[in-house]
Amino acid sequence: MVFYVKPFELNPDMPAEGENLRDHLMRKYGSSAEDSAKVHDNITAMGAEYGFKFNYSDDMRVVNTRDAHILLGYAFEQGLQHALKQRLFTAFFTEGKDVSKRDVLLAQAQAVGLDLAGATQALDDARRRRHVEESELTWQQRGISGVPTVVFNRTSAITGAHPQSSYKQVLQELLAEVQ
User: Fold this and answer.
1) In order of start, what are the domains of the chain with their CATH numbers?
2) Rounded to whole angstroms, what are the CA distances from 154 to 48, 81, 148?
3) Handedness of CA 155, 87, 75, 59 (dihedral sign)
4) Would you give the DSSP letter of residue 90?
5) CA 108/CA 85 separation, integer angstroms
6) pLDDT, tens digit, 9 for 90 and up, residues 136-148
7) What is the pTM assigned to this prediction?
8) 4: pLDDT confidence band, cut at 50, 70 and 90?
9) Distances from the Cα of 98 to the Cα of 22, 108, 157, angstroms
10) Per-residue confidence (pLDDT) for residue 2, from 0 to 100
11) Can you list the alpha helix ranges (DSSP code H) found in the chain?
C-alpha cells in the first residue's frame, strides 16, 4: 500500500506575509472570535488524545504552503514524507514556526534526515512546482475543498477532522465489499 500525501492548499493565493489566523477565519468563513476559539479548543483536545500539542495563539498566521508541498514530494521519493509531514505540523502548530519560509523548511528537512542540497534543489525545481499546482487543481476539480481529505480506493472519502472510529468504519465497509 502506498500512502502519499497529495498536495492541496486551502489558500493557494495566500500572500507571502500570510494572514492572522483569526482574521482569516472571520473573513473566509464568517467565524466569530468565539466560534474560532471553540473550534481550536476542539482540535486541541482531539490532538491531545493522540499526543499532539496544538498551540493556537492570537498572533498565529495562516501562511502559503506551496513550498512545503514541493518538499513533501521530494521527501516521498526519499522515503521520508511521513516524517517530514509530522515535523512540519509540529513546527507550525506546536512551535509556531513559519513553514512558508525557506530556511524553516530546510531546517525541518534536515531534522528528518533529508539532504540539504537535494531539498534545496527540489524547492528550486520549476517542474516540481508545476506538478504541485497541477495536482492541486486536479483535486479541486474532483470536488475536494477541505483538509484533511482521505480518499479510499478512489471510491470514497472523508473530509475534515474525524475520530479514529470513523476511519475504521469506512475501512471495514470497503473490506466487506471485496469479500
Assistant:
1) 19-141 (3.40.30.10), 149-178 (no CATH)
2) 30, 21, 15
3) positive
4) I
5) 9
6) 888 888 888 887 8
7) 0.84
8) low
9) 16, 11, 30
10) 45
11) 21-29, 33-49, 66-77, 81-89, 102-111, 116-124, 126-141, 164-178
